[in-house]
Fold:
Amino acid sequence: MKTKVMIVDDEESIRKLLKSRMEREGYETVTAANADEAEKAFGGNGNGIGTVVTDLKMPGRDGFALMKALKEKNPHTKYVVITGHGEKEAAVQSVKYGATDYLEKPFDLEEFVHTVKRCQREYSLQAENSDLVARLEARIERALRDLVNLSPR
Structure:
């Protein structure tokens, strides 16, 4: 099962274009016009969202503030920041704040798809790894309990 992609941008045309493109790739896509809408849709633990694509500059809270708020809810979610032309310093700063990658407008749609797919793979591998570790820890705990129960008293 593919995890969801969230697209956050105050420009409706960009949201629609990116949503349509990701849905053609088979991803369920959630959109939000601002950080408040995004945080509501994200819920308490991410609601199955593996990657958040966010514009850096939006009315109200910006992409930095959104990443910070959502990371507190699910630290494993991946982030792709979209910046305007000439905002390279802000894009680099976003990576320092935890974004997996950034794209500078105007960007190539195929580059966008490739970037999001890579983030989704990373998220899925991280989730699978966490699940395997939890299952292994449970097996070890059961084995130790069984060993303790078998030992002579």
Q: What stands out?
A: Strands lie at 4-8, 29-32, 49-55, 78-83, 101-104. Residues 88 and 101 are 12 Å apart (CA to CA).
